[in-house]
Design brief:
Blueprint lengths: L7 H20 L20 H12 L5 H15 L6 H17 L2 H26 L5 H81 L3 H30 L16 H10 L3 E6 L7 H21 L4 E9 L2 E9 L13 H12 L3 E7 L2 E9 L7
Parallel strand pairs: 1-2
Antiparallel strand pairs: 2-3, 3-5, 4-5
Helix pairs in contact: 1-2, 1-4, 2-3, 2-4, 3-4, 4-5, 4-6, 5-6, 6-7, 6-9, 8-9, 9-10
Length: about 400
């Protein structure tokens, strides 16, 4: 298998080391004199072998760091029995540094331990043999050539890994923030869709039903009555739309925010349903003060139930009952269920989904469906004792 192509910077290092070593050979500069006892191969030409091998190892310092280190170790040992070359030593220190920085983590740790032990051995063994202070310099040289580059590579690697971990944490934080933002936008869109549906659907349904009646019944009195109801619901619907637009614009502190509907407004809501033609009976006791979110949800559930009754219910009594007990606000709306002969407005099912979502957001329950000859809407909303609006 062919080795990966060397990095451009590694090519520059190899070429610079080789040219520098050749220059030193040409000048006759070596690290030891030819009379040194350990110099087995005299002359300038034997120096070129480890020099060339280390230059080749530099080409592999990033792509195959362990192979480069093993080969470079053999080359530096060979350099010890020649007159030596400073460029060869410098390239070997770089190969050790690169093996720790770019090699596997396990290899980097082993290189740390091996070079450290070699440094200690190079310090203690010669001193124990020769008993002269100068023998300690051998350990210093081993430490500078082997352990120093390994320690430097480990420090750089540690900082690089810490920076990479910080970058990954930053990316994860940004991703989580984007997910939170997307969820917040989705939740806000769903909330505004519920508000828009609950505020406007009642009025538009009344307009659709009474306009259908006015078109199908050719009587002046009926048409005038239908037009009056249509106008009343149009004005009310526009007012609700202006309120919603005002909330969305959020003009600032110059204007007071519009008050949210409360349970005290159920009487007016039932009166409006009666004006639209429903026979509604409101049965509610003194429910006391409840948190504003519970009041708003209860009001919207009753409002949507009356809207559905206006669109789909058969002629008959519609009953709205609210009862608070055992820390729960119980809402029950019943309307006649069966085949309807008169005009009716189409439904999309968004109303039932919105009521179910409102109850679920407060930790309550919601059920809607036929029961005997009635359509029953039942919701229970938790009201913690002691909380007030």
């Amino acid at each position: 298998m062919a080795l990966p192509r060397p990095h451009r910077f590694d090519v520059y290092i190899a070429a610079g080391g080789l040219l520098g070593g050749l220059l030193l050979v040409g000048m006759g500069l070596g690290t030891r004199p030819s009379s040194d006892p350990i110099t087995l191969f005299d002359g300038p030409w034997p120096v070129l072998v480890p020099l060339t091998v280390l230059a080749g190892c530099e080409l592999l310092r990033r792509t195959a760091p362990r192979t480069a280190l093993l080969t470079g170790t053999v080359a530096i040992c060979t350099d010890l029995v020649t007159q030596g070359n400073l460029a060869t030593i410098l390239m070997f220190t770089d190969v050790v540094y690169a093996a720790v920085l770019y090699g596997p983590l396990a290899s980097a740790r082993r290189i740390q331990w091996i070079t450290g032990l070699l440094t200690v051995a190079g310090t203690l063994v010669p001193f124990a043999v020769w008993r002269v202070p100068e023998a300690l310099l051998i350990g210093v040289v081993v430490g500078v050539v082997a352990y120093g580059p390994a320690a430097t590579g480990w420090i750089v690697r540690d900082h690089r890994d810490a920076a990479e971990a910080a970058r990954l944490r930053a990316e994860q934080t940004a991703l989580l923030a984007e997910m939170d933002r997307a969820q917040a936008v989705t939740a806000e869109r769903a909330r505004m869709a519920r508000e828009l549906h609950d505020m406007v659907a009642n009025h538009l349904s009344a307009i659709a039903i009474h306009s259908t009646a006015a078109l199908s019944i050719d009587e002046a009195a009926t048409s005038r009555q239908a037009l009056a109801v249509i106008r009343e619901n149009s004005v009310a619907g526009l007012a609700e739309m202006r309120r919603l637009i005002g909330i969305l614009r959020d003009a600032g502190g110059d204007t007071e925010p519009a008050a949210s509907p409360t349970l005290d407004g159920l009487t007016a809501l039932v009166d409006g349903a009666r004006a639209n033609g429903l026979d509604v009976r409101l049965d509610t006791d003194d429910h006391g003060r409840v948190p504003a979110p519970v009041e708003l949800a209860a009001y919207r559930i009753v409002q949507e139930s009356l809207t559905n009754a206006l669109k789909h219910a058969c002629p008959g009594r519609v009953t709205v009952a609210l009862d608070r007990h055992d820390g729960l606000l119980d809402i029950r709306v019943t309307s006649p269920y069966g085949h309807r002969n008169g005009p009716r407005a189409p439904g999309s099912g968004a109303g039932l989904a919105g009521m179910r979502e409102r109850a679920a957001l407060l930790g309550g329950t919601f059920r809607a469906g036929p029961q005997d000859a009635l359509w029953v809407v039942r919701a229970t909303l938790p009201v913690p004792e002691g909380e007030s609006a």
